[in-house]
Design brief:
heterodimer, A: about 220 residues, alpha/beta, 9 strands, about 25% strand, B: mainly alpha
Chain lengths: ~220, ~250
């Protein structure tokens, strides 16, 4: 796989390596209202992109289209130069998506939730889970049932997945909504670290991101 | 240089980027399958209601027959096979909603759909755990209730075996209906309208097999038909459920 990635970047112009994710000519319409049309963008390794737009401008829809959760669109999507539908499995193994609904079962404990959601990609050990929970400020909460946690703490449980995943592309839908000031700081640092180690992030938020790295913006308002 | 930068950035991160190798894929499919199975069983164990509801329902419905029809042993013997099978079918309908509903509401379903693992196995794992929780107890309780309805002694094994083959089919076909309706706000009876027609063949074959067994007739055809239904639903129903789930989250 590295070989093919190499050749495709050679065939492109040498100064511009193949972007990780490229969207071409995206068009989406919902209830006879055009959300976006003729949308082009690309995301390279090391890019942090904030998707902006007013309420109802299609931010969540755009992210869900990119992940393949929504198929009512026109246009083309490429992962490392290959159309996503041709290698969906390869794309999904490089993707980590955190949606509006955090994907945390309230009956289970933080550890049980993380063990399952990580095992869908790559199994993790108990020690890794505890370290990750510690890093997101939930030390000692590993065996607490998520029903007894606040919304922000549940959000942090799902953020711990960022630390446990080998995925290169993070797609985060409003990850800051329920976080407190310190949580926001932790997440901003995580985003910057992930970009610095060659990952890519696509994030929607109304919060003003203060990150120690370059920030690209994609505005859906016209 | 690259080593140094790697360690400085990734001290928090537990995995290297793109750490998932190709040779690991089969191992991780099995790991994801068993993790999903264990998770669903764990949720069921923690929510005792889900575990007891279908069983209680089964018990109540079967015990209504002697009250509503007749307490005459001969009459009960005649309807026993059908009564137990109908009650088992209704009990399995009752618990179907647990299959994907909670996962849809808390977002776990999206995580499942975005797993690089084959969705067939993930849905199959959920089906198996659902059957272990709601189907198997019904199968185990059935002989006791059949005794209550004066089922002839010859038919007990047939009852247990047909239920053992048939209840997984009910779960598998039912999952398609749940997957289709999980995104709807108010479902009402639509789930039953979708699922019941699919499960009628199972009911007919199962009840007929038990009746025939009590009359001492040959059973080979019933078992082959039931086995064929199980094979069909095992191979196709998870695929249909997976496709339906993708539509439902859309």
């Amino acid at each position: 796989m590295p070989a093919s990635a190499h050749t495709s970047s050679d065939s492109a112009s040498p100064s511009q390596p193949t972007p990780l994710l490229r969207a071409q000519n995206l068009f989406c319409e919902r209830d006879d209202r055009v959300l976006f049309s003729d949308l082009h963008f690309s995301l390279a390794a090391g890019d942090l992109m904030q998707v902006q737009g007013s309420n109802g401008s299609g931010k969540t829809t755009l992210l869900r289209i990119l992940c393949g959760l929504n198929s009512s669109y026109e246009g083309a999507l490429f992962w490392e130069g290959v159309p996503i539908e041709e290698d969906r499995e390869g794309f999904l193994s490089s993707l980590l998506y955190l949606g509006h609904r955090v994907g945390v079962n309230k009956v289970l404990t933080a550890r049980e939730n993380l063990r399952w959601s990580c095992s869908l990609h790559a199994p993790v050990s108990d020690a890794e889970i505890e370290e990750a929970l510690y890093s997101v400020g939930l030390a000692g909460y590993a065996d607490i049932s998520c029903r007894n946690m606040s919304a922000g703490q549940q959000q942090r449980v799902s953020l711990a997945r960022l630390l446990l995943s080998p995925a290169r592309l993070w797609v985060l839908d409003e990850p800051f909504t329920t976080l407190d000031v310190r949580g926001v700081k932790v997440l901003e640092n995580l985003l910057a670290d992930h970009v610095a180690r060659g990952g890519a992030v696509l994030v929607t938020t109304h919060h003003t991101l203060e990150v120690p790295c370059a920030l690209r913006r994609l505005n859906l308002d016209r | 240089m690259s080593e140094a930068s790697k360690t400085s950035h990734s001290s928090l991160f537990k995995k290297e980027l793109g750490a998932l190798g190709v040779d690991q894929e089969q191992v991780s499919t099995f790991a994801a399958f068993s993790a999903t199975l264990r998770r669903d069983l764990l949720i069921a164990l923690k929510r005792r209601n889900d575990l007891l509801n279908p069983l209680m329902f089964f018990l109540i419905v079967v015990s209504l027959f002697p009250l509503g029809v007749s307490s005459d042993p001969q009459e009960l013997t005649r309807i026993a096979a059908g009564a137990v099978w109908v009650s088992a079918l209704l009990a399995s309908m009752l618990s179907l909603d647990n299959l994907f509903r909670a996962d849809y509401e808390d977002g776990s379903l999206e995580q499942l759909l975005l797993s690089p693992q084959p969705l067939y196995f993930m849905v199959l794992a959920k089906n198996i755990s659902h059957w272990l929780i709601s189907g198997l107890p019904v199968v185990l309780l059935a002989p006791l209730l059949a005794y209550m309805l004066y089922l002839p002694a010859d038919a007990y094994w047939t009852l247990v075996l047909t239920l053992l083959l048939g209840t997984p089919v009910l779960s598998l076909f039912g999952a398609i209906g749940v997957a289709l309706t999980v995104g709807l706000g108010s479902r009402g009876l639509i789930l039953a309208v979708i699922v019941l027609p699919l499960t009628v063949p199972v009911l007919i074959i199962g009840a007929k097999a038990v009746t025939d067994a009590s009359l001492g007739l040959p059973l080979g055809m019933h078992f082959s038909l039931m086995g064929a239904l199980l094979a069909l639903s095992l191979s196709l129903a998870p695929l249909a459920s997976a496709a339906a789930l993708k539509i439902s989250v859309n």
